[in-house]
């Protein structure tokens, strides 16, 4: 005798009915209240830091499809790398100083979850990362010989968009070293000037904390700073002796600490309502912050590391965001907006005097100076075509406009000038 | 209405988000419980998903996709809870839906108690990937393509997971039926 096999429609109906039966439960009474309490203690992650912002949900399913050309391209890349290696053998490569002006190297950008580099005019695109997972937020080391990036997908939870690895590779995409694995909401890494250390934020328990790790993978990540506060977006100072970071759920303050996590303190005397972005002056003595005071829209503030009270650069009015110092610190580029959607680019002196409006309308992706200070990269992602524009800060030379295919965005790293590879003059 | 709330929440309005969370939490909890088969873990996963939704809302490009996006966050949270459970070495707690005040009798839906037990045992043997596609397809009513978008995996992968999962559930039913026959002294 054999058991009778149920027909497929009957089996489908049985499963549906079983789930229906099982689904008649009440949620625990405190569930949503507890969740909202936790929400009120949580900060928003900026859009540009999110994997799904770079790769929209309906497209991310295609990410794990390995291009057929990938092995061929990898082979070609390896061949080219070998030729270059042979050409330079016996000579030491010249490297730029870790801060101050440098010559312009390549621009990194993302396309379909992989990191590419290209010349600043968009020519000679080269795929630098391959394989499963989705790469994002690549950040060049200060000498341009390596970059660190976030890799989402392959090792932890393939369907999770918030768990990622932090990976370091050589500038040609080879020699990957996994620095952190399966961590949640990894922020872009910041390199120490000597290239030995990386700082970044990730969720530790329920909130973001700052971690430091050896860039060669020889020392595991260690949490640093005050564990009682929410801390994120850490950036090494130009001389590497301090780390700046955001503190609080929305960014109540800008904190500074030593690389070993000691001497942490908040620079601003009055808490901010929310911080948009902040970056070190090349001299390392001050920080420009785009932040909202208690009631105002976002303005630019200068915070002095030596302890002087903060100073507001821009009077309340339209919102200013995304400030970026020129490589020698004599000028500031920043965006302004009236509607929160479209942004205009301005360049001014370091104290915000002599402001000049540059042409064009852009998205909320912070401007980035070229290492030699002759161009500002700014992005328009408002339409169906993502467009990178390289503007002359003096408004004299013609703008270079590069159209990118869908999902290709240059890495206009909002908190430090990392979009552009720095190379020796 | 919901689109307005989503847009307000995307702009940072916590009250709008709270309203969205209250509207969605019950359904999310049910889905998490169906996948995880554990009330405590389902509660944790639901809270985790709601907090993640708030944190990551600025990355949502299309407010009309809020529901699907929320389901993806919930599934991710369920994966994490399942892994956490494995690391803790914890034992899943049997939940008896018939003990719930709103549960209809199993007979109302034409399912024999013994069959329900067989389905429960079979379902618990599945991994979380397979449980998830079963719940999305048979409970939430997602097509394979819709499930693929929500899970961020190719439709072919959803299809194969669903195939393996339903085959395993069938085997569980048939194996239990054979065991019953053997125990009753009748050869299968």
What does this structure look like?
The complex is a heterodimer of chains A (425) and B (188). Chain A is mainly beta and 425 residues long. Chain A has two domains: 68-97 and 129-266, TolB, C-terminal domain (Neuraminidase, 6 Propeller); 274-425, Neuraminidase (6 Propeller), CATH 2.120.10. Helices cover 12% and strands 38% of the residues of chain A. Chain A has five helices and 29 strands. In chain A, the strands form seven sheets. In chain A, strands 1, 2, 3, 28 and 29 form a five-stranded antiparallel beta sheet that branches. A four-stranded antiparallel beta sheet of chain A has the order 4-5-6-7, with no helix packed on it. In chain A, strands 8-9-10-11 form a four-stranded antiparallel beta sheet, with no helix packed on it. In chain A, β2 and β3 form a beta hairpin. In chain A, 49% of the residues are buried. The model of chain A is unreliable at 55-68 and 405-418 (pLDDT under 50). Chain B has 188 residues and is mainly alpha-helical. Chain B has two domains: 1-93, RNA polymerase sigma factor, region 2, helix turn helix motif (Rna Polymerase Sigma Factor, Chain: A), CATH 1.10.1740; 104-188, Winged helix-like DNA-binding domain superfamily/Winged helix DNA-binding domain (Arc Repressor Mutant, subunit A, Orthogonal Bundle), CATH 1.10.10.10. Helices cover 72% and strands 0% of the residues of chain B. Chain B has eight helices and no strands. The longest helix of chain B has 29 residues, at 155-183. Chains A and B meet through α1, α2, α3 and α4 of A and α2, α3, α4, α5 and α6 of B.
Low-confidence stretches of chain A: 55-68, 405-418
How many structural units, i.e. domains of chain A? 2
> How would you describe the shape of chain B?
elongated
- Tally of alpha and pi helices of chain A: 5
**CATH topology descriptor of the largest domain in chain A:** Neuraminidase
Helix content of chain B: over 70%
Which outline of chain A best applies? Answer: globular
CATH superfamily of the largest domain in chain A: TolB, C-terminal domain
- Structural class based on helices, strands and sheet pairing of chain A: mainly beta
Question: CATH homologous superfamily of the largest domain in chain B, by name?
Answer: RNA polymerase sigma factor, region 2, helix turn helix motif
Helix content bin of chain A: 10-25%
Written as H for each helix and E for each strand, in order along the chain, the element string of chain B is HHHHHHHH
The CATH class name of the largest domain in chain B reads Mainly Alpha
CATH topology (fold) name of the largest domain in chain B: Rna Polymerase Sigma Factor, Chain: A
Q: What's the gyration radius of chain B in Å?
A: 19 Å
Could you tell me the strand content of chain B as a percent range? under 5%
């Amino acid at each position: 005798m054999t058991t009778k096999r149920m027909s497929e429609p009957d089996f489908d109906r049985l499963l549906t009915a079983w789930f229906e039966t099982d689904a008649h439960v009440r949620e625990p009474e405190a569930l949503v209240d507890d969740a909202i309490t936790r929400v009120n203690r949580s900060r928003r992650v900026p859009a540009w830091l999110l994997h799904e912002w770079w790769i929209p949900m309906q497209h991310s399913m295609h990410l794990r499809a390995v291009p057929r050309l990938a092995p061929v391209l990898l082979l070609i890349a390896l061949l080219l790398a070998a030729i270059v290696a042979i050409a330079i053998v016996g000579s030491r490569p010249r490297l730029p100083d870790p801060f101050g002006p440098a010559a312009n190297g390549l621009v990194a950008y993302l396309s379909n979850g992989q990191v590419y580099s290209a010349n600043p005019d968009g020519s000679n695109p080269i795929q630098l990362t391959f394989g499963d997972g989705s790469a994002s937020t690549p950040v060049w080391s200060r000498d341009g010989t390596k970059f660190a990036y976030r890799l989402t997908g392959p090792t932890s939870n393939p369907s999770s968009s918030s768990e990622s690895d932090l990976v370091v590779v050589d500038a040609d995409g080879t020699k990957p070293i996994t620095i952190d694995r399966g961590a949640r909401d990894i922020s872009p890494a910041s390199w120490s000037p000597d290239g030995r250390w990386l700082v970044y934020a990730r969720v530790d328990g329920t909130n973001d904390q700052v971690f430091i790790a050896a860039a060669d993978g020889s020392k595991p990540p260690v949490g640093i700073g005050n564990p009682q506060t929410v801390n994120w977006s850490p950036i090494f100072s130009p001389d590497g002796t301090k780390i700046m970071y955001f503190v609080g759920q929305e960014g109540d303050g800008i904190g500074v600490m030593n690389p070993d996590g000691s001497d942490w303190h908040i620079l601003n005397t009055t808490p901010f309502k929310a911080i948009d972005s902040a970056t070190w002056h090349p001299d390392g003595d001050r920080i420009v912050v785009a932040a909202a005071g208690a009631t105002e829209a976002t303005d630019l503030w200068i915070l002095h590391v030596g302890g002087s009270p903060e100073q507001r650069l821009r009077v309340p009015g339209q919102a200013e965001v995304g400030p970026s110092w020129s490589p020698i610190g004599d000028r500031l580029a920043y965006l302004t907006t009236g509607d929160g959607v479209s942004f205009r680019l301005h360049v001014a002196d370091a104290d915000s005097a002599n402001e000049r409006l540059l042409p064009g309308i852009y998205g909320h992706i912070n401007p980035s100076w070229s290492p030699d200070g002759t161009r500002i990269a700014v992005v328009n992602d408002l339409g169906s075509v993502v467009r990178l524009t390289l503007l002359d800060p003096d408004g004299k030379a013609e703008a270079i406009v590069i159209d990118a295919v869908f999902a290709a965005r240059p890495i206009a790293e909002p908190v430090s000038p990392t979009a552009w590879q720095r190379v020796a003059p | 209405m919901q689109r307005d709330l989503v847009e307000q929440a995307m702009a940072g309005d916590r009250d709008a988000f709270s309203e969205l969370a209250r509207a969605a939490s019950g359904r999310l909890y049910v889905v998490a419980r169906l996948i995880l088969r554990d009330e405590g873990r389902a509660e944790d996963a639901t809270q985790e998903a709601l907090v993640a939704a708030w944190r990551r809302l600025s990355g949502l490009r299309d407010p009309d996709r809020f529901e699907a996006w929320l389901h993806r966050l919930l599934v991710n949270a369920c994966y994490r809870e399942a892994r956490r459970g494995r690391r803790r070495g914890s034992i899943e707690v049997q939940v008896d839906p018939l003990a719930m005040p709103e549960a209809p009798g199993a007979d109302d839906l034409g399912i024999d108690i013994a069959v329900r037990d067989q389905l429960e045992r079979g379902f618990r043997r599945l991994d979380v990937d397979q449980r998830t596609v079963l719940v999305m397809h048979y409970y939430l009513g997602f097509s394979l393509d819709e499930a693929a978008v929500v899970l961020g995996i190719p439709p072919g992968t959803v299809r194969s997971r669903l195939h393996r999962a339903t085959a395993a559930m069938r085997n569980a039913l048939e194996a239990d039926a054979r065991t019953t026959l053997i125990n009753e002294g009748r050869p299968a």
